[in-house]
Amino acid sequence: MSFFQVYPVRLVGYSVLALLLGYALKGDELRSFFINSHQPLELNTPSSADVLIIGGSHAGLSAALTLTRHQIDVLILDSNAPRNKWKTPTHALPTWENRNPDDLRRASWKELQKTGFASFANTHITTITKTGANESMFIARDSLGREWSGRKLLIAAGVEFVFPLIKGYEENFPDRILHCLFTRGLEYKGSRSAGLLAMGLAGSPHHSAMLVEDAQKFASTVTVYTNGNLQLGVEITAALLARGEENTAVDNRKIIQLLREPAGDSITIVFDDGGTATESFLVHQPDTRVNLEIVSQLGLETNERNDIVTRMPFYQTNVAGVFAAGDCASPFKMIPNAIFQGSNAGAGIARELPRTITHNHIDRLADKGTTWYSQLQRQFTL
Ligand SMILES: Cc1cc2nc3c(=O)[nH]c(=O)nc-3n(C[C@H](O)[C@H](O)[C@H](O)COP(=O)(O)OP(=O)(O)OC[C@H]3O[C@@H](n4cnc5c(N)ncnc54)[C@H](O)[C@@H]3O)c2cc1C
What's the CA dihedral at 77, 80, 83, 84 to 10 degrees? Predict the structure, then answer.
C-alpha cells in the first residue's frame, strides 16, 4: 500500500495548514517569517533618503513613523542586536504586557512598510561622516563598504551593558540579577531575600537606599553588598537611616564569584574571606555605554553615564542635523521612553525638513498607484 493511500487524510491536513499559514502571512512576511524572526527583508533599499536612522528598534521605528506622517523618506539601518537580547517578556508597556519585544518591532515595521516612505537595510554601521555645514549630508558606511546618505541623522542605536568583572555575573543576568524592578520585579514577589549590589554608577548612597525600598516590595529581607567599598558602606548606612530604614544589613566584603543555584531559584555570593551568602535574587543596574565609534566620529557630546547629551524637546545633539533618541540618549532606559523620545525626535527632524529642502511631491501616494482619498475611503469606508 502506497504512502498516499495510507496517509491521505494527514496529507490533506498538512496542505490546508500550509495554505492557511501562507494566507495569514503572505509574500514578504512569509519569507521573513522563515528567514528571521524579526528583521524585515531588504527590498530595493535606496542608497539615500531624507533621514538616516541608525537603529531599527523601539526608538528608531517610532521616529520613522512620525517622519513618514510628514511624507519624509526614512532609511532604517539596523544590526538586529537590541539590548534585550534575552527576549524576556515585556512589562510596563501598555497593551504589550507579557509579550515578546520582537513581535512589537515586527508589528511596527509592518505599519511602516504600508506608508511607502520607509526602507530598511540589515547592516551594522561602522562609520558615519558629515559633509558640508548648513546644507549638510550624512554618509553611513558598513564593513562591506556599502554606503547610504541622508540629510538628517537620528542615532537610535541603544546602548550596550558594561558588566562588572565578577566571575559568574553574566551567567546570572538577567533572571537572577534584576536590573530594573519596574520591568522585572513583580514576577519575584514573595521572595525570601534579596541582595543589592551597590557598585558602578548606580551604586551611590541615594540610589542604593531607593533600590532597597524597591526590593523590599518583593522580598522579606534586603542586604546591601558594597563589594569591598567600606566608605560607600558607611554612606549607604547613613542614607538608609535618614530614610528611617533600620533593619537593612550592609555587607562590605569583597565578592569573588556569583554562583547560580540550580535548585531553589537562588544565587550565592562567594566572598574573598571564604564566606557565602545566598539570596533569592540580586538587584543591580550595570553600567551602559553608547557606540563609542559613532560618537567620536561625529563629535557627539556624552555625559557621565555615557549617554548622548541632547536638548529637549526634540532631542537635538550638539552636532547640527544629528538627533538621538531612546536608551542611547536617556537615563530612563525603557520602551515607553524610547517610543516617546523617538516620536519627539521625528517631529523635530520633520520641522527641519520643509518641502523647500526635500522637494518631495505633495501627493507621493498617487505615485504609488493610490491617492489620499482612496486611502481614506478604505480606512473609513466613505
Ligand atoms: C533583560 C531586559 C529586559 C527588559 N524588559 C523591559 C520591559 O519589560 N519593558 C520595558 O519597557 N523595557 C524593558 N527593557 C528595556 C528595553 O529593552 C530598552 O529600553 C529598549 O529596547 C530601548 O530601545 P532602543 O530603540 O533605544 O534601543 P534597542 O532596543 O537596544 O535597539 C537598538 C538598535 O540599534 C541597532 N544598532 C546599534 N548599533 C548599530 C549600528 N552601528 N548599526 C546598525 N544598527 C545598530 C541594534 O541592532 C538595535 O536593533 C529591558 C531591557 C533588558 C536588557
Answer: 140
- Given phi > 0 = left and psi -120 to 50 = alpha, else beta, which region is 170? alpha
Q: Which of 91, 124, 146, 183 to mutate to test the pocket of ligand 1 (most atoms within 8 A of CB)?
A: 183
CA-only gyration radius of the chain, Å:
25
* Phi, psi angles (nearest 5°) of residue 274: 90, -10
Please tell me whether the peptide bond between 313 and the residue prior to it is cis, using omega within 30 degrees of 0: yes
Q: Indicate which atom in ligand 1 lies nearest the CA of residue 83.
A: 30
Pocket test for ligand 1, best of 78, 169, 294 (most atoms within 8 A of CB): 78
Q: What confidence tens digit (pLDDT) does each residue in 324-368 have?
A: 999 999 999 999 999 999 999 999 999 999 888 877 766 555 555
Short-list 262, 90, 303, CA closest to 176: 262
If we measure between CA atoms, which residue out of 315, 309, 300, 305 comes closest to residue 348? Answer: 315
pTM of the model: 0.85
pLDDT exceeds cutoff 90 at 261: no
The model's pLDDT over 113-157, given as tens digits with 9 standing for 90+, comes to: 999 999 999 999 999 999 876 668 999 999 999 999 999 999 999
